[in-house]
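## Example pair
The file below holds two records. Each record gives the amino-acid sequence first, followed by its structure token line.
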Amino acid sequence: MGKIHYALLLSLGLSSGLFAQNNTSIEDSYESYFELPRESIFLHLNKSTYVVGEELWFSAYTYDRKNGLPFTQTTNLHVVLYNEQGKPLEDQLFMAVNGFARGNISIDSTYASGDYFIKDSTNWMKNFSEDDSFIQKIQVINGSVEVRDLADTTYDLQLLPEGGHMVEEVESVIGVKLIDGDGRGVVFEKGSLVNDSGISVMDFDGNSLGMASFPFRPQKDTYNVSIRFGDNKVVTAPLPHASEKGIVLRVVNNYSAEDIFFAVATNKKTLEDLEKKKYQLLVHKDGDIRATRSVVFDNSQQETILSINKDQLFPGVNTVTLFDERDRPIAERLFFNNYGIRDIQAEVRLAKKVKDSLTIDLKILSEGENNGHLSISVLPSETRSYNQKVNIFSEFLLKPYLRGYVENPAYYFRGFGPRKSYDLDLLLLVQGWSRYEWKNIFNRAPVINFPYENGLTLKGSIMGADLRKFPSFYMEDSKYHDSRTVELESPDFEIPNLLVEKNEEVQIKLIRENGKPSSRRLYAKIVPDSNPSLLGPIELTTPNNYASELPELDYKLENKTIFLDEVEVVEQKQKFSNIIGKDEIVVDQQVVNMYPRVTDFLRVKGYNIKASLGAVKISSRRSLGGAPPVIYLDGTRLVAETSASSSSPPSQAQGNGFGGSVKTPDAPVDDPFQESGSFSFLYELYTAEIERIEVNPRPDVTEGVNGAGGVIKIWTRRTPLVPTDATAMNKSFIDTTHGFDVPKKFYTPKYIYSNSLFEYTGTIHWEPQLELDANGKGTFNIADTGMENISFFIEGMTEDGSLISTIKTIKMSEKSNP
């Protein structure tokens, strides 16, 4: 027996207190609630399944829903990668320009096989009770595919009357939805409505996502819905009882190509309560009301049918709400208007082959100006690693308006046509009321508590300097800013909205009262933008994007790749290899410039760092429970500062000169897993103060139970740090450790193209931002992997806000004209 859910949301006798208004009209309240612009974000990931050693590549698109254009007010995009428990592992900040951004996250060997979440959000989104951040689940494979338990599932049969409820003797449409224990639709061919005598009143068909609907004029009788599926499984649920009095709202969306029809109906028992009462039917979206119709009932008219031309309505999801004479919402329905939405397709062809490179020409097939950006994931045609269930259409045109989970929303926007339109209307029927609650609209208009972020804040101090002698400082030009002179009003200064990349060298100089630069050192740093929070319970229910039917293979790349920041010259790769490619490094001026603090270096080696009030908590991003590492300082093992260690007798705990406790190598550890993971000596420990550092982030069995978080060995400086140039010690630079992350240039891991690993999970190419000319054309190069058939997964947006999502597969042996 399945559970029953139905949306008996409102009735005519609903208490007026729930929707109490502040003496304002519906229109004023609605407009006020959406006065602040709303933005949506879509991340196009190059895949959804990754093998350790690969890079997760993505492009970000931000969208102004009300105006249907790229959202340009926000610059700072927060991208966080979480583990399966919702704990942040990677926290990165990327710069959006004109609504577009790109980035990457390295999936290194410290990632275990399993599920992870990637989330993108902005500070501005925090102003709203509705969460508009983007979140998607990905799969990581480290060596072998994780075996997933196939436990017996339960089934849930949901029966959802259109508009909210049923009324006796009034024709209604009943939505049907059959899902399993994971919330996924269960396909069925036939369902039946059965009366209390066991006689089938009518049959209905299900679609490919486990949904159906049927028209029904309910009586006082008892009815059940029975569905048979699979291997003779049967699920039955009772149809909810119809109300004796009430009003039913129906929408007919697929009858006419030009018009949408609305029916407001009641029964004879209700008419006498409705005499001379004026109801309103509003069609609205994102703060605008496109259509208002009055509905008046008399003793002879039980149903009112209205029609509105589609070109008078909003493109995309519209909401129609019926209000009673006291402006209370009593019925609501979502519907999709495809008028004005372009299904833009693309042509992809092989233009030429040059040695081991292929030149690809792409053209979008659309009239008018088509300047814009596309992101393109190029994969073998037999790939099983691209299982995206969302696309740019579903994230911008559908998700913002729905309150419930939607299975495979991209399905409705891949190949527009009558079947997809019918299925989309069925989806909106069973979704019920809009995501935006009227009690909030009437009483809780958003206010600006979190402003747009358009850069980062520089904070600094010239403590001890006389401002009369040093009235200003000079900041040299950087990648995104011209040079400037800043007048000082106090020893502490702050400059907002700077666009500075991580580890970018920006020199600052204190200026004397005579206008000449001073050699006195000046300290300033980009402050951290924010700290990521844990994922909530709802976010953790994001559906899986598992690679389908992956065979049992050794899922490891054949050749190791040194992962570097964007460096294109071979000599530079060799120059940086001693920093990234080895566990132990010798600290020179180059290392100091790249990682001013020791904690900056530890972050890139796989550790979470939290610094506060002189303490530093460090934990492994990949170990179970986030275990702290074992740390040695000049050969002596340190103990994390916990209540246990702080109470140790003097013979076991000693001062170390850096703050914190010291234990001899043979001393026992008081606290298993060193639970707090706090090491105060790391607070403000600069890389220039150490001579060598060795980091092993993997579990170390030689350290016993405490080795779960890896081992870090630090040696303090015994010899002077020699600068890389003669003037380096006389320069002051902004600490840009917390600047914007710099996207890498795409590189191809060292695959063996002829094996199944590459065919199923490999990446041929990632084009993050292909710029289109006015004719919608663009060209890019990919590696020639010898694949006969290649698939192109394309997402994008033009400057006028038109959306593009398509998948193309071409044969490399064929050429076609553009």
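Second record, same layout:
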Amino acid sequence: MSRSAGGVSAILRWSFFQLHWLIGITAGSLLMLIGLSGAMMSFEEEILDMLNPGLRSVPVQSVPMLAPPLLLAVVVPLPSGERIATAIFSAEAGRSVQLLLQTPPGASKLLPLYVHPYTGQLLGEARGQAFFEWIERLHRFFLLPREPGRVVAGILSSSLLLLIASGLYLRWPRRPLDLRTWLGFNPRLKGRPFLWSLHAVLATWALPAWLLLTATGIYWSFDSVRSSVDSWAGIERAPRVKKEMPPKADLNGAVPDISLAWQRFSDKVPAWRELRVRPPETASAALEILWLLPDAAHQRERNRMLIALDGKLKKDERFADQSTGKRVLAMIHPLHMGRDFGLAVQLFMMLSGLALPVLGVTGWLLYLSRRRGAREAERQRKALLPVVGVAAEESILVAWASQTGRAESLALRTAAALQAAGRAVVLRPLASLQPAELAGFPQALFVVSTFGEGEAPDTARGFARALGLADLELERLRFAVLALGNRQYRQFCGFGHSLQAALLRFGAQAWQPLTPACETEPAAVEHWFAGLKRFGVRDDSLSASAQAAPAWEPWRLAQRTLLNPGSSGSPLFELTLLPAKGELPHWTPGALVEILPCPHSCSVEPDLPAPRRYSIASIPEDGCLQLIVRQHHHALGIGLASGFLTLNCPLDGELALRLRANPSFTLAEDDSPSIFIGNGSGIAGLRGLLRERVRRGIGRNWLVFGERHRATDSVCETEFGVWVQAGLLEVDRVFSREPGGCHVQDFLRGESARLMRWLGEGAVIHVCGSLQGMAGGVDAMLEALLGREGLDLLIAQKRYRRDVY
């Protein structure tokens, strides 16, 4: 993996995510107003007609509607003294004439008046017209003066464009040509997944309209943009100047006689759909008429004619004669409004406008949910890693290396006990230490676990390798090691022993022998904490620090389902457990349970059987705790624990269980892409993590899962299929016993280019399965692909997380 490529991709994704939510929670609220007001204006004409029966349209009569000269002569001068700027006539029978009045400078815009098309009677203003005028000012200028309002609208249009770009980048799927990934919505989702899916899919549906609305909004808002576009279209616009009130018309405000001019127009244009007649302001001025032909595609296909009052034609401009650029630009307003292209387009534009407030609400809910999750994560982090002091001349280094989290927990308790005794403490994971740093500490306490047969935990691999190559002088260092392990392995506490041997080789001195500790032997841990008395730790601090393991609690087996009937492999069961008393406790996805392979009553007996650990296959929001357990068979029969859980424990029977944190197998705190790799019963831990990612609505999840046969071993297929359809998951199932089949690590080796692409985008790998089988093979494959340093870097970045056994 290219370190620089992966870093750049991760930074780019982080930057786009920060940009997206920052614009969303700032400009997003105003964009909601733009969308809502625009949606309301989409059907303004229809709403006004409904609110004003008999005003905007009158009953059709047998006589012709009044021609413009006669009608204007009847209604002008107006009773209130206003002057007509434009009279709008429709060829539709019974459609009232609309008079647009000139607004004096500095005054509020006057509302249109309606005139009876057959009698010339002044009908008055339309009910609701003032409301829509207010909505339009809100939509275009945010109720600000025109010029600053235009700038605000342009900035918001640009913000929407940035939201679109960042959203597309964050959502871009691996199969961009799959329309179901883009447009499919699963209403069965709940909670955060439902919100995320609604947010993403609705935005995709509205994307064409938003791009159009954004482009037109920027065009109208910024003169520099408009000038550049107009120049391309061959349009020359005069600079904006402050409008002055035109001189009053002759004849005491009455419109001059336009009969000759109208006759000339009628001779030239026998048929029209709509007229906009602009009366001359003086007797010497020309009559201006703009009209739509009957077959006009939209309201801006306007033709223009200037005619002197004596009937002399001064100008005749036809829309069809304009350049292509001008005709294209004339479509901007009709497209923006969506009214002239049929009901389907009008509805689409309205719904696209309504999508903005919906996305604003879902975006805020997702943001608040994320904030709550971040606060909870911070609370848990503070509880897990309390502030324990700073480095000082006599400070004590407490260093830890943990695979399951137990070593980390003991290191925290060690540091807390030392701090309570007034000692300065530096708490560090081995993953963040360089061996040379050890020379700077006079005393050090190491709490380390062993992984597998004597190996360092994943996070400490780099440190162990560097320590083996180092040449140090540590004569000043006094240290002790608490080594955790499992006596089932031949090299019990192997990493602890190798760490102690290396420190001694470099001249460091152990102030007490290595303390080996198996989890079933609490006396060793008590001995470790007792040794802290040399640092002034009191007995009461020791009792608080050397906490016992969580108590066993009674749980009830509520359901047991065979997942692979007919499989050639051992039976695989899904177990559903509920607390026998009290409420369902909380756990972090990726956590483990420990179960005693006997009825709950045996947990009070002095000689307990060794507990067994299982990955949790569910999340607390499921309302139950689920495990996926394979029935283990050996030469002497069925395994003790798997036999008890899958065969011998009756339904509703009680068993002893306790929860265990598993910090090395948690999800990334951000929304980084994630790769989930497993086989067999390893699907349990992966499913728990995937359910949490889906609950949060986080996409970019790739599951590679191995089993034997497709027909019998496609476990969780329905559940995963729902996530795939929602665009939240990509699944590759690998079947080793099928013709041409292979193992998971071999499949990934063949998909190395795809794997590198995901890693380059900052993906986090989660592996759950057997160390001696699949997990070991995947580890070897990754080391061959990335190199030892590349794999160490992945571990140091916490992008390689394993739950292996």
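Notes on the second record: The radius of gyration is 38 Å. Residues 15 and 166 are 9 Å apart (CA to CA).
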